[in-house]
Design a protein that fits this description.
Helix 4 packs antiparallel against helix 5. With 135 residues, the chain is mainly alpha-helical. The protein is elongated, with a radius of gyration of 18 Å. The protein starts with 10 loop residues before the first helix and ends in a 10-residue tail after the last helix. The protein has a single domain, classed as 23S rRNA-intervening sequence (de novo design (two linked rop proteins)), CATH 1.20.1440. It is built from five helices and no strands. 78% of the residues lie in helices and 0% in strands.
């Protein structure tokens, strides 16, 4: 298993960055989205929140904080997916054009969820060290 020394080593962070690039690109090239400043701002903030929260949580160097920030990142992933689905419903883009991004959000959300499960199991299996007192 590869060593994780920084958040940049995390596959989920790398995937979140790639999703972010694609969503930012969509917000520039898709005419209806690029002109709807409120929608464009919302989806861009949500997608950037995913990698931001992964990075911030990792940097606390504490599993409890990391878990908390991963949960926020997972929520933001759902928010991006919701925006993409809504964009289809209001005819900003076709389902065919956004389906790859929707799949990416599902995959990334699942990967974040699996890391959350792993970290929670890791916490549950740790036994507190007994306290020793010197007389």
């Amino acid at each position: 298993m590869a060593s994780i020394n920084s958040f940049e080593d995390l596959v989920i962070w790398q995937s979140a960055q790639e999703l972010g690039v694609q969503v930012f690109d969509l917000s520039l090239k898709n005419l209806p989205i690029s002109k709807d400043y409120s929608f464009k701002d919302q989806i861009k903030r949500a997608v950037l929140s995913i990698s931001n929260n992964i990075a911030e949580g990792f940097e606390y160097n504490n599993n409890n904080d990391f878990v908390r920030y991963l949960r926020i990142a997972k929520g933001s992933c759902g928010e991006v997916r919701n925006c993409l689905i809504f964009a289809i419903k209001i005819n900003y883009a076709s389902k065919e054009s956004l389906e790859p991004l929707i799949i990416q959000t599902k995959t990334l959300g699942s990967q974040i969820g699996k890391l959350l499960i792993y970290l929670k199991k890791l916490k549950a299996t740790r036994h507190p060290q007994p306290v020793t007192r010197n007389p």
